[in-house]
């Protein structure tokens, strides 16, 4: 079964990666064709070539190394390091013979297409699923587990969050938006016993968010049950969907996680439950199942937690797709900036192929196709940002040379470009070795 799980993880990851690579290279390809450049090869995957076909001047193929792809454009110094064309005069169909502004569009087209892909995914998911939101005004308070990171930061039971980073927000999900989490000074404003309190989150704690958890809407879920499984202790005790458990052994219960923690710690011992059903209140003695240590009840639904499901039309969905793309982009850029500045650990927050594959598999297992497309959109934005970095051998490195040429009206020598490409490859190879080694240490 372990082998099957590994193969499934690899398959899901490769599916997402191939989509991203294809769209990225398609951007370069279409832009080059638009300006009359000859494209010699469109490859998804790096050599050796394992399959393909020739159509016109272009070899469309799949490479055996599925960690990227490339479009080989005539007259361009690229990953292939082909420099034979430099001994000849530029041809009209070559990259080097085109105006700087056209070459800039060709170089940045892959990044632009990755951003467009993310926008279309977010928009499509909104059209299909609508928007799930938890209005902050419907959240009366939070459950703060003892010894949790939230408690260490200064949060207390029943705190009502009213803002983040000094700003009022409408929905609970805005509290943990990437742009907010990666802000230089992260703080939350809460109401406690009628008094407003500011809770600062130091940069040093951000590395703990992934391993110890952070603010989640689940902390606001009420102790109300959505379903009762037949033949379980809850069913035998007469509990029904919609019942709210308000006390266990005379301990007041307000939250779902609080309820599950008490049941789990009971280790099968019988407890006295006080239950509200409509306008009536009754008690029942229930012992969790001896094997599963569960009552057999379902967690509250979004409606029970005060959430809303909003169906949006095409125009509104487009606006929501744009907002999500912008939000995720600013969050990812903020995260990179904090890693570069040293505010957060590079080792803890930078993931390679193993980490990405694991996250993609988890999202797909938990949310099905919605999870897969959500992660694909995030990876598409990340790929765009990484590719536009001013590192030789990446699109951003080529763009730097083009900007230089546009300013000084003189193209850098091909020797300089080739040396820069080699340095860029060394940098990227070193980075790849680091992230893979880092993944192995974290996951094995």
Structural commentary:
The structure is a single chain. The chain has 444 residues and is an alpha+beta fold. It has three domains: 2-129 and 378-443, no CATH class; 132-219 and 305-310, Pdz3 Domain; 222-299, Pdz3 Domain. Helix content is 45%, strand content 18%. It has helices at 2-34, 100-129, 149-153, 178-181, 209-212, 233-236, 256-266, 314-341, 346-349, 353-367, 369-387, 395-408, 414-443; strands at residues 39-55, 58-73, 131-133, 160-164, 167-168, 186-192, 195-201, 244-248, 251-252, 271-277, 280-286, 308-310. A four-stranded antiparallel β-sheet has the order 5-4-6-7, with no helix packed on it. A four-stranded antiparallel β-sheet has the order 9-8-10-11, covered by helices on one side. Strands 1-2 form a two-stranded antiparallel ribbon. The two termini are 18 Å apart.
Share in helix: 40-55%
Oligomer: single chain
Structural class by SSE content: alpha+beta
> What form results from the Cα inertia axes?
elongated
> β content, as a range?
15-25%
Radius of gyration: 27 Å
Largest sheet: 4 strands, antiparallel
Number of strands: 12
Order of helices and strands: HEEHEHEEHEEHHEEHEEEHHHHHH
Q: What's the mean pLDDT score? A: 85
Unreliable runs: none
Distance between the termini: 18 Å
Which keywords apply here?
alpha+beta; 13 helices; Pdz3 Domain; 45% helix; four-stranded antiparallel beta sheet; 444 residues; 18% strand
Detail the topology: elements first, then pairings.
Blueprint: H1 2-34, E1 39-55, E2 58-73, H2 100-129, E3 131-133, H3 149-153, E4 160-164, E5 167-168, H4 178-181, E6 186-192, E7 195-201, H5 209-212, H6 233-236, E8 244-248, E9 251-252, H7 256-266, E10 271-277, E11 280-286, E12 308-310, H8 314-341, H9 346-349, H10 353-367, H11 369-387, H12 395-408, H13 414-443
Antiparallel strand pairs: 1-2, 3-12, 4-5, 4-6, 6-7, 8-9, 8-10, 10-11
Helix pairs in contact: 1-2, 1-10, 1-11, 2-8, 2-11, 2-12, 8-11, 10-11
């Amino acid at each position: 079964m372990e082998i099957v799980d590994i193969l499934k993880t690899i398959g899901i990851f490769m599916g997402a990666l191939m989509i991203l690579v294809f769209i990225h290279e398609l951007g370069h390809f279409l832009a080059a064709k638009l300006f009359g450049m000859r494209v010699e090869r469109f490859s998804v995957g790096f050599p050796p070539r394992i399959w393909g076909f020739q159509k016109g001047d272009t070899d469309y193929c799949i490479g055996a190394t599925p960690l990227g792809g490339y479009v080989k454009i005539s007259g361009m110094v690229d990953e292939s390091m082909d420099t034979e064309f430099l001994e000849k005069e530029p041809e009209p169909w070559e990259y080097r013979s085109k105006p700087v502004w056209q070459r800039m569009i060709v170089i940045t087209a892959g990044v632009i297409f990755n951003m467009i892909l993310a926008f279309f995914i977010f928009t499509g998911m909104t059209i299909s699923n609508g928007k799930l939101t938890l209005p902050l005004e419907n959240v009366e308070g939070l459950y703060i587990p003892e010894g949790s990171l939230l408690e260490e930061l200064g949060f207390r039971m029943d705190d009502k969050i009213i803002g983040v980073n000094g700003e009022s927000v409408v929905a609970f999900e805005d509290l943990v938006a990437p742009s907010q989490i990666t802000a230089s000074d992260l703080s939350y404003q809460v109401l406690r016993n009628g008094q407003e309190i500011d809770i600062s989150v130091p940069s040093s704690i951000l590395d703990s968010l992934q391993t110890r958890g952070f603010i989640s809407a689940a902390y606001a879920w009420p102790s109300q049950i959505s379903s009762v499984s037949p033949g379980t202790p809850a069913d035998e005790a007469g509990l029904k969907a919609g019942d709210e458990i308000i006390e266990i052994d005379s301990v007041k219960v307000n939250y779902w996680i609080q309820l599950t923690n008490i049941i789990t710690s009971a280790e099968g011992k019988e407890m006295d439950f006080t239950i509200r059903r409509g306008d009536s209140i009754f008690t029942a003695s229930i012992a969790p199942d001896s094997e599963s240590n569960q009552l057999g009840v379902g967690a509250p639904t979004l409606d029970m937690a005060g959430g809303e499901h909003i169906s949006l039309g095409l125009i509104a969905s487009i606006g929501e797709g744009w907002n999500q793309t912008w939000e995720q982009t600013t969050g990812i850029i903020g995260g990179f900036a904090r890693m570069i500045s040293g505010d957060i650990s590079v080792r803890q927050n930078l993931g390679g192929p193993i980490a990405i594959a694991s996250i993609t598999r988890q999202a797909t297992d938990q949310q099905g196709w919605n999870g897969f497309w959500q992660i694909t959109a995030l990876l598409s934005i990340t790929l765009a940002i990484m590719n536009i970095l001013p590192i030789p051998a990446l699109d951003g490195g080529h763009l730097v040379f083009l900007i230089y040429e546009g300013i000084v009206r003189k193209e850098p020598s091909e020797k300089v470009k080739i040396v820069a490409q080699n340095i860029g490859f060394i940098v990227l190879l070193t980075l790849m070795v680091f992230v893979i080694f880092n993944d192995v240490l974290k996951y094995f």
